[in-house]
User: Fold this.
Amino acid sequence: MATPQQATAKAAKLAPTKTDKPKAEKKGTEIFIPEIKSKALSKDVGPAFVRIQAKVDQDTAQAEDLANNAKRSKAAAMADLTLAIIKATKADTAINLALVTDTSADAKRDRDKLFAQIYVATGLKTVAQVGDKKRLVWSPEVQDLFPATGESTEAGTPGAAKATLRSNVSHAYTHAMHAALSIVERNISAEMDKATGTLKISGPEVQKQFGVKEVALNEKRTVVPTDKKGKASGDPIELKQIPSYSALRREAEVRHGKVARGPVTNDRRIKTTDPQTAVREIALALVKAIEALKEKPNAETVKALKAVESAIDPLV
Assistant:
């Protein structure tokens, strides 16, 4: 005899199954199927646009990746360069790094000698025997990257790009030398931050300038405290200054009387006692401001730019 549970299960199998009736579409929800006249069709345009947009998105993403990789590479290279300059300055007392802050005409000869020393110390230049005289020339590793003697540097020529590179290298070396000077004179510890690939500095002077004992020169205004294992251990801290090579450079120029010390604020207007330094820093700030413009400058801005142009023409 079947148990009550087995009887129930058997009855369930023999019961007729309930079929769902198709639901009627609600009024107003019918799918609209457009019928376009053949003369109105451009069927190749849509797919072509989508493919182009997909390529643009892909290229943009790749460009952003390349830009980020380039930025990281530049940061690591600047750290290596600064550490090398610090090493050279500490090891050779003939190198007077303080001369990098003096842009006066009277100091040009000594400043050029300083750059020659640093170029040789970092392998950028080398001493070559030319005839019966010794000459300072670009090292073989970079010789083809800079304009050769007599090579045209007019716009559109290969020499123009080489001249731009040479200028960029000189600017980077100047920045690194100022940072190294600030680090050496203030007895700051410096090392490569393996986690970020940037220069990391520490010490009492770092605490005084930035508000924390240790910071990476990553140009980030806030830092997150970490424990010995590198894990976050507190709320983000806003630094007194943005940690950068520019911040170290300014401190070096302040110590050598080239820039007047002022209160630490977000005001980036130049306060300097040296006209050469002022012009250089204002020019860099102007370039960044122009690059940041998202629309055509208004009449007042155009007037100001023309005034700058008029002032520059007699000098260059």
User: Anything to note?
Assistant: Residues 63-273 form one domain. The radius of gyration is 33 Å. Residues 264-270 have pLDDT under 50 and may be disordered.
